[in-house]
Amino acid sequence: MDEKLTKLKMEQLSKQPILEDHVTISEDGKWLIAKATTTIIKPMSYLDKIKENRLEGKKEE
User: In the Cβ-directed half-sphere of 57, how many Cα atoms lie within 13 Å?
Assistant: First the structure.
């Protein structure tokens, strides 16, 4: 049972975006620079579906 939960949890986690934070101080020491990057990985079929829906929307206009 635990093994199935672990696989399920891993599947859920793999679908979540990857969040990265980078904090630095400027060279002159006057500024705090905070960068946040969100990485989302989707299959190409997802992009194809979006393109398809956009084209259908333009035809209706």
Answer: 6
For 37-53, what is each residue's pLDDT tens digit? 999 988 899 899 999 98
Give per-residue pLDDT as tens, 10-22.
Answer: 888 888 899 999 9
Q: How many CB atoms lie within 10 A of CB 7?
A: 10
At residue 41, the 3 state secondary structure works out as: coil
Query: 36: domain range?
Result: 2-60
DSSP 15: T
3-state secondary structure of 61: coil
Number of domains in the chain: 1
